[in-house]
Amino acid sequence: MRLICTYGAADLNVLAVVGSLNRISTTRLVLIHLAEQLKARGSAVDLLDLLDEPLASSILIAPMRPKDLLRLRARVEQADVFILGTPDYHGASAAR
Fold first, then answer.
1. What residue ranges do the domains of the chain occupy?
2. Residue 23 carries which DSSP code?
3. CATH of domain 9-90
4. Hey, which of 38, 49, 65, 69 would disulfide with 43, CB 3.0 to 4.6 Å?
C-alpha cells in the first residue's frame, strides 16, 4: 500500500475507525497499517476499534454511559480527518 498526501501529514489529527467486530480482520490490518504510515509521516492518529470500545456493546445492549459518550465526542471533535474501515461481506460493505 502506498500512502499519498497532498499536504503535510504532520498537520493532521486522524481518527481511524475499525468497524469490524472480528479480531482477525483484513479491515483491522489495513487500518493499523495505514495508521502506522500516517504516524511515520508525523500525523497524530487515534485508532477507534469498535471491538475494544464500550461503544460497540453499548449500542447493541444499552445506551452509552454519559462519560463514554463525552470521551467519544471529544475524540471526534479533535479529528481533522476520519478514516472509516468497514468490513466487506460477500462483496458488499456493511453500510450499504
1. 9-90
2. S
3. 3.40.50
4. 38
Residue in this structure with the C-alpha cell 471526534, named with its chain if needed:
76
What does DSSP say about strands 13-18 and 44-49: parallel, antiparallel, or unpaired?
parallel
Cell of 23: 479480531
Assess contact for 88 and 20: CB atoms under 8 A. Answer: no
Q: 83 pLDDT exceeds 90?
A: yes
User: What's the CA gap between 12 and 62, in Å, rounded?
Assistant: 34
Non-local (6+) Cβ contacts of 88 within 8 A are 26, 27, 94
Q: Distance between CA atoms of 61 and 28, rounded to whole angstroms?
A: 23
What pTM does this model have? 0.75
